[in-house]
Write a structure and sequence with these properties.
- By secondary structure, the chain is mainly alpha-helical.
- It is built from five helices and two strands; from the N terminus they run ββααααα.
- The model has no long low-confidence stretch (mean pLDDT about 90).
């Protein structure tokens, strides 16, 4: 796309969302996230463990279903 004599890139929102999801999965694997949550680590501690931002930790927790897995494991133990 050309605008004011400059070439600008346009990005497909779906591809951008997929890239964010994949990047998050690679940086904070599901099993590692579940393990950290089972150990009652705070978001700050998880971010430090995986060298991730707090935003990425929250994103992974919200999008991965890790809380559901943690609750299932805790209920199974009781």
């Amino acid at each position: 796309m050309k605008h004011l004599g400059l070439y600008l890139r346009s990005y497909d929102k779906i591809h951008e969302n997929e890239a964010s999801w994949l990047g998050g999965c690679l940086q904070i694997p599901f099993d590692g996230l579940v393990s950290a949550l089972l150990k009652n680590k705070t978001h700050d501690q998880i971010a430090l463990q995986f060298l991730a931002s707090l935003e990425m930790v929250k994103y992974r927790i919200n999008k991965s279903g890790a809380i559901n897995k943690v609750n299932f494991i805790k209920n199974k133990k009781s």
